[in-house]
Amino acid sequence: MEEKTDYLSRETGPIGIFDSGYGGLTVLSEIRALMPEYDYIYLGDNARAPYGSRSYERVYQFTLEAVKWFFRQGCRLVILACNTASAKALRTIQQIDLPTLDPDRRVLGVIRPTAESVSTLSQSGHIGVLGTEGTIYSGSYELEIRKLFPHITITGEACPMWAPLVENREYDKPGANYFIQQHLQKLFEKDPLIDTVILACTHYPLLMDKIALYLPKDTKVISQGRYVAESLRDYLWRHPEMDKKCSKQGSIYYFTTDSPERFEQEASIFLNEQISARRTDIEQKA
Ligand code: DGL
Fold first, then answer.
1. Terminal C-alpha separation, the chain
2. What digits encode the pLDDT tens for the residues 210-227?
3. Which of 5, 149, 140 is nearest to 71 (CA)?
4. Which of 31, 243, 265, 273 has the fewest CB atoms within 10 Å, counting from its CB?
5. Residues 172 and 219 in one domain
6. Are 24 and 229 in contact, with CB atoms under 8 Å apart?
């Protein structure tokens, strides 16, 4: 059944926040903390998560379906709060799909705002990027950071087990240490001069306590939620025409493509509060 949000006027709509599952909730928290007056719709494509090891075609197809779903809910602005979707689908959606879907709506990602934050933090000019296979092998962080700061050396490390550790509530268990140590060790073997590490996956802030155990002393960690939130606020300041189209009643609605009960339980880990979720199908029936 298509969910229609009855609280919307025709002229304005909530800001859509998309993730393959729960990870985007870490970004949503920071956005809401900074801009509590806006309305938001969060969608987790839990039925098809994780996206991290999926092909370009699949991630693009799923993300485009999600964007169309948000547009049908009245969203004028959608944030892909998922690095894998931002890495593999954002550019094509912005350049190929948006002009025909609706040139007045916008879809933004998390990679550019994170890339913008790095130069002020690194002294050595050597940065490590930790993410899913999709994000790391796409080279998107390297591309975005090099565009802005050509002198910076970027080294990526794909951590395919990390998001599943979070999704399966193993993130604070002793078994998680093995996978975390393994990838951090590999990253620093590749480039021992790294002094700043980007957590380029929205799930990773939940692994922060364990990540800190295996990082060389004084390594700075960029957890992207705050930067994405600040960049969104800045975007809306610079684009009053879009700001006017974003409704502001301080509401939040949660949707998932899988079990709402499970979503409510798991979301509490990410948000530290109880929420209520609804199930939706994002594929548009012919
Ligand atoms: N949330 C996704 C990201 O930020 C990771 C989880 C997944 O593999 O779907 O890349």
1. 13
2. 999 999 999 999 999 999
3. 5
4. 273
5. yes
6. no
Q: By the 8 A CB rule, do 53 and 86 touch?
A: no
Distances in whole angstroms, Cα of residue 159 to Cα of each of 3, 51, 107, 163, 196: 35, 13, 27, 8, 17
Closest ligand 1 atom to residue 84 Cα is: 10
Between the CA of 11 and the centroid of ligand 1 the distance, in Å, is: 32
Beta-carbon contacts of residue 192 (< 8 Å; ≥ 6 apart): none
The reply to whether 267 and 219 lie within a common domain is no
Residues 99 and 194 in one domain: no
Q: Is 159 a catalytic residue?
A: no
By most ligand atoms within 8 Å of CB, the mutation choice from 28, 90, 132, 270 for ligand 1 is 132
Say yes or no: 103 and 232 in one domain: yes
Answer whether 0.90 is exceeded by the pTM.
Answer: yes
Digit-coded pLDDT (tens) for 65-107: 999 999 999 999 999 999 999 999 999 999 999 999 999 999 9
More confident residue, 17 or 4: 17
CATH code of 118's domain: 3.40.50.1860
Which has the closest alpha carbon to 154: 165, 170, 139?
139
Indicate the number of domains in the chain. Answer: 2
| Cis check: omega of the bond before 36, within 30 degrees of 0 | no
Q: Give every CB contact of residue 17 below 8 A, 6+ residues apart in sequence.
A: 24, 27, 28, 31, 40, 41, 42, 43, 78, 79, 81
**For residue 150, what are the domain limits?**
112-224
Question: Does 244 share its domain with 220?
Answer: no
Ligand 1 atom closest to 19 (CA): 1
